[in-house]
């Protein structure tokens, strides 16, 4: 296998920041479970606390200038915000139904969905080697879902959770594609607009407990908005321009691998060996797509006798 050459030099601080962000994202499920609220309400408060933190960050960095806010960018950011909110709500609802591990693993087929949507919407050509990796990735998805042949005991709740996860993955793929067409808008501002859109869309649908939100729940909700959202985004967006594609592709999978470990350590949930194999196939396929791996051997110059 061969990968495209790396042109961006290794930056230790950027790499460490990206790893820290992936570890934060891996704790999402804990914040969701411990907050103890429905998915819509949890996402609303995630948007609220993240928006406050991101607004302060953007203001401190001087990002609120007219040149960053073209009509096209604002429109695409708002459209992406609708998709991002749909992604968050379905992802959170899926975690509450099928657990952190399965939801996180299944969600990570979204790079393949991006590739397929790009081909449909923008008529982007998919190379034969990438199509092969996509097929391998979806084979991994089948294994990761835990739907073994002949198993008729899968509950409607489990199937519903899988459908919610795939819906969220499709929505996030849409966010990725919408961001591609935007120019000259800092990603931190895009994330802020996503959160603001979430507040507007969800404010009329939140459900508060009869006794109100308890202090410990507020702590988990604030932590959700500040740590695996605002701070993670700041670290990710700051690190990406300083990291080679190879490092990004590999280190991204710290997130699902750690999430599986966290789910086992905190909640005692473990996945089957078949599902672990599914995760491995998804990881390999995603790396193959992102790094443009090919199974064709390189042509070497004939040796001189």
Q: Total helix count?
A: 13
Please indicate the percent range of residues in DSSP E strands (runs of 2 or more).
Answer: under 5%
Radius of gyration over all CA atoms, rounded: 20 Å
Major β-sheet annotation: none
Structural class: mainly alpha
Name the overall outline: globular
SSE order, one letter for each helix or strand: HHHHHHHHHHHHH
**N-C termini distance:** 28 Å
Gist of the model:
Residues 1-6 and 300-305 have low confidence and may be disordered. The chain is an all-alpha fold and 305 residues long.
Descriptive terms for the model:
305 residues, mainly alpha, 0% strand, globular, disordered N terminus, disordered C terminus
Molecular structure report:
With 305 residues, the chain is mainly alpha-helical. It has one domain (12-203, 216-290). It has 13 helices and no strands. It is globular. Residues 1-6 and 300-305 have low confidence and may be disordered.
Topology:
Layout: H1 12-25, H2 28-35, H3 39-60, H4 71-98, H5 100-107, H6 110-121, H7 128-144, H8 156-180, H9 187-202, H10 215-239, H11 245-251, H12 254-267, H13 273-290
Helix pairs in contact: 1-10, 1-12, 2-10, 3-4, 3-9, 3-10, 4-5, 4-8, 4-9, 5-8, 5-12, 6-8, 7-13, 11-13
